[in-house]
């Protein structure tokens, strides 16, 4: 499709060919609204190129519920590995015959006169009545500034560039960050027999299985994935909360950092500074481990109450009890003495909406919107964590948000058609 010449005008331009953009496309087609998807790379690019070899979903396959294309494989309670995830997204694109223009990066989106938009791409400039930004919120790898002070001999990479233990130089490895990626990469290295130093932050953790079921099943029954952000106890602040860490590897299991430490992994508090070959850590390791376990046990207690209130016959469960406690740890690590060759920055991503040449974001750089509908008439965002619910940034609920946006577009299309002189409503039909 990339060989085709771009049209000068599209009714709707969708930016991003991942599961969010494709979901919008599926619902726009149902609404009879013409559109195009511009994808800078390839369909499912992030899944394909920013995940390590042993990566798999942390949510069970049955939660893969793209529009009219739910997971239909033999293992609904399993966890798809990376390549199967890519195939699932690609098969969805083929299923809906998505009008994707791969290899067409968007450079700028701005207003065109009194109404509509101008979209500048690597293949030319087009106009549109509406634009949907389906580019998630994870745009640029984020690395701490102290990385600049590490000795040049140390190999540094972001978690999105990690593939496997064998691809790294011999020696010990420091993983900075204990969110989902950091913990799973630390586990991957640990299982490969590498000496790992994990810098532990404040991310919470969740049980994989509890009282006879995957915790995700219990939480789904409790409506946790469908709770709107405006009804969450933390409100919009929940959007900045780190995801709970656990894994779907080998059929799924807890990630217990204390057990890793008992087996030889070295745990440290938050990285505070780099001084030559010395890393300096905060005095918060005990607090961070305890807080993660408190969240874990809080989820278990929530499930316990649900089971009791509903009279469900389920196996007994017990709260987590620590299997290891930090001793009299020092707050420094000499990476030369420890034989460290590599530092992996599992420190997340930062959002970059600079290609949107309009007043979209608030003072914190977050797009202003209500369930993806921004204050800019005809401009939308989708596929972001907690766009509307916990499931918004996942295969589970991204289709529901896409449907909401497509319906909003369909309801406004007559107004936009009238605003563009000489363009009839029929121009919106596929």
Topology, please?
Elements: E1 9-15, H1 19-30, E2 36-39, H2 45-49, E3 65-66, E4 69-70, H3 82-95, E5 100-102, E6 106-111, E7 117-121, E8 124-133, E9 140-141, E10 155-158, E11 172-176, H4 180-191, E12 196-199, E13 209-210, E14 213-214, H5 215-221, H6 257-262, E15 266-268, E16 271-275, E17 278-281, H7 285-310, E18 332-334, E19 340-345, E20 349-350, E21 379-381, H8 398-419
Parallel strand pairs: 1-2, 1-8, 2-5, 8-21, 10-19, 11-12, 11-19, 12-15
Antiparallel strand pairs: 3-4, 6-7, 7-8, 9-20, 13-14, 16-17, 17-18
Note down, in words, how this protein is organized:
Strand 16 and strand 17 (278-281) form a beta hairpin. The strands form 6 sheets. Strands 1, 2, 5, 6, 7, 8 and 21 form a 7-stranded mixed sheet that branches. A 5-stranded parallel sheet has the order 10-19-11-12-15. Strands 16-17-18 form a 3-stranded antiparallel sheet, with no helix packed on it. The longest helix is centred in the C-terminal third of the chain and has 26 residues, at 285-310. The chain has helices spanning 19-30, 45-49, 82-95, 180-191, 215-221, 257-262, 285-310, 398-419, and strands at residues 9-15, 36-39, 65-66, 69-70, 100-102, 106-111, 117-121, 124-133, 140-141, 155-158, 172-176, 196-199, 209-210, 213-214, 266-268, 271-275, 278-281, 332-334, 340-345, 349-350, 379-381. Residues 422-430 have low confidence and may be disordered. By secondary structure, it is of the alpha/beta class. It folds into 2 domains: 9-139 and 351-428, FAD/NAD(P)-binding domain (3-Layer(bba) Sandwich); 141-345, 3-Layer(bba) Sandwich (FAD/NAD(P)-binding domain).
């Amino acid at each position: 499709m990339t060989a085709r010449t771009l049209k000068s005008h599209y009714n709707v331009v969708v930016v991003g060919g991942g599961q969010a953009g494709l979901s919008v496309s599926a619902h726009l087609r149902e609404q009879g609204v013409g559109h195009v998807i511009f994808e800078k790379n390839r369909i499912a690019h992030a899944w394909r190129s920013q995940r390590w070899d042993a990566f798999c979903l942390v949510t069970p396959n049955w939660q893969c519920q793209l529009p009219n294309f739910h997971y239909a494989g033999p293992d609904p309670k399993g966890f798809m590995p990376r390549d199967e995830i890519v195939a699932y997204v690609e098969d969805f694109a083929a299923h809906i015959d998505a009008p994707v223009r791969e290899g067409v990066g968007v450079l700028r989106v701005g207003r065109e006169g009194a109404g509509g938009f101008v979209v500048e791409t690597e293949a030319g400039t087009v106009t549109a009545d509406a634009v949907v930004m389906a580019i998630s919120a994870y745009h640029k790898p984020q690395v701490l500034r102290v990385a600049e002070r590490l000795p040049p001999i140390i190999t540094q990479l972001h978690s999105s560039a990690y593939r496997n233990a064998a691809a790294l130089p011999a020696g010990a490895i420091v993983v900075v960050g204990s969110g989902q990626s950091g913990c799973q990469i630390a586990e991957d290295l640990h299982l490969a027999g590498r000496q790992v130093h994990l810098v532990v932050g404040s991310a919470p953790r969740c049980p994989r299985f509890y009282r006879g079921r995957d915790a995700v099943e219990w939480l789904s029954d409790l409506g946790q994935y469908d709770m709107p952000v405006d009804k969450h106890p933390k409100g919009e602040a929940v959007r900045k909360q780190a995801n709970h860490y656990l894994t779907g590897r080998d059929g799924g299991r807890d990630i217990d950092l204390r057990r890793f430490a008992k087996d030889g992994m070295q745990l440290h508090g938050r990285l505070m500074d780099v001084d030559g070959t010395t890393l300096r850590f905060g005095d918060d390791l005990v607090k961070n481990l305890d807080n993660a376990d408190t969240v874990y046990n809080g989820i278990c207690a929530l499930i316990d109450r649900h089971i009791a209130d509903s009279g469900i016959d389920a196996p007994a469960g017990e709260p987590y009890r620590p299997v290891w406690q930090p001793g009299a740890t020092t707050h420094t690590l000499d990476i030369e003495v420890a034989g460290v060759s590599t530092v992996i920055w599992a420190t997340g991503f930062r959002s970059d909406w600079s290609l949107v040449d309009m007043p979209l974001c608030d003072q914190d750089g977050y797009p202003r919107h209500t369930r993806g509908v921004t204050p800019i008439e005809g401009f939308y965002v989708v596929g972001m964590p907690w766009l509307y619910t916990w499931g918004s940034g996942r295969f589970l609920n991204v289709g529901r948000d896409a449907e909401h946006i497509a319906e909003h577009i369909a309801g406004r299309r007559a107004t936009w058609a009238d605003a563009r002189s000489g363009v009839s409503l029929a121009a919106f039909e596929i």
